[in-house]
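Re: the 307-residue chain
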Amino acid sequence: MLKYSKVVGLIVFVFLFAMCNQKSKNESDKETILKGSMDITVDETIKPIVDDQVAVFEGTYYGSKINVTPKSESELINDLLNQRAKVAVTARNLTEEELARFKKSKINPRVTPFATDAIAFISNKGNNDTLIALKTVIDFMQGKTVSGFEGLVFDNPNSSTVRYMKELAKVKDIPAKGVFSFKTNDEVIKFVSENDGMIGVVGVNWLSQPSPKMADVIKKINVLAVKGLNDNKYYSPTQNDLAEMKYPLARDLFIINCQGYTGLGMGFASFISGDIGQRIVLKSGLLPVRTPGRNLKIRNQIINDKE
C-alpha cells in the first residue's frame, strides 16, 4: 500500500510539474519583444508621433498590439510610480526622487531617449506679428503687466507644457487671470484660431502632423519665432533650429519601460530608437536622437532607362 501511495504521489507530482511548465510556457507565449498585447501611456502633447510609431510597429510585426492612452504628464508619472502603467512615453526624464521611489519598489526603469521635441507658441492669423520674446511670456507668467497679447492658452493645468513654462518662469502656480486651459492641444489650436490676442502653448508635433479634421484650422494660426533669454535673434521650432540647439523651447522625449521582463515594451523601445523609428521621427518634423543613414549607390556610367 505504501509503495502504491508513493507511485500515485509521484504521478501527481509529475502531472502538476508538467502543468506548471505548460502554464509558464503559455504565459511567455502571450508576449515577447515582437508579439503580444501591451498598454502604453503617452504624454498627450506628443501623441501624434507615438501614434505613427505604433502604426508602423504593428504593421511590421503582425502579432503585436499596442493600446495607446493619452494623459497629462502629472497623471502619467503618477501611474508609473503607482504601477498602474508599465510603459510610458514622456517629455522629460525621471527625477532623482522618482528613481528613488522605483528603487524602493525594486523596479529598475529602462529609459530610452528617442527624439527632441519643441514647445511652440501660436497666435491667430489676424496677428501680423509673428515674433515673440520668451521674456515677455515669462513676465506674463509671473503676473506682470504685459502689452501685446491678452492671454496664454494651455492644454491642461497638469500638462508637460505647463510644468515646463512654470519651471522657466520660476513660479509655483500659473496666474489666475489671463490664462486659459482646455483638455487637448487640438482644443488650444482651435481656440487660438478663433480669438485674436491669445497665445497658445502646444507641442509642435500637433502642428507638423495635424489630423485631417484640423488641417483647415492650422491654416488660421501663426507659429511664432521665439527670442531666447540670452539671445537677440528669433528662432522657429524647426528641425534645423533644434539640431543647432538655437530654439529656446526644446525638450527631449523618452520611452520609459517598467515591465521588468523581456516583453513588448523592450521591443517597442528598440524599434522607436532604431533605424525605422528614427526615420519616422525625422519625417514627423521632430529631431531624431540619431540621424538615419543614407546608402548611396555610385555608378560608373549613366543608364538610359528609356532604351
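Residues 1-28 have pLDDT under 50 and may be disordered.
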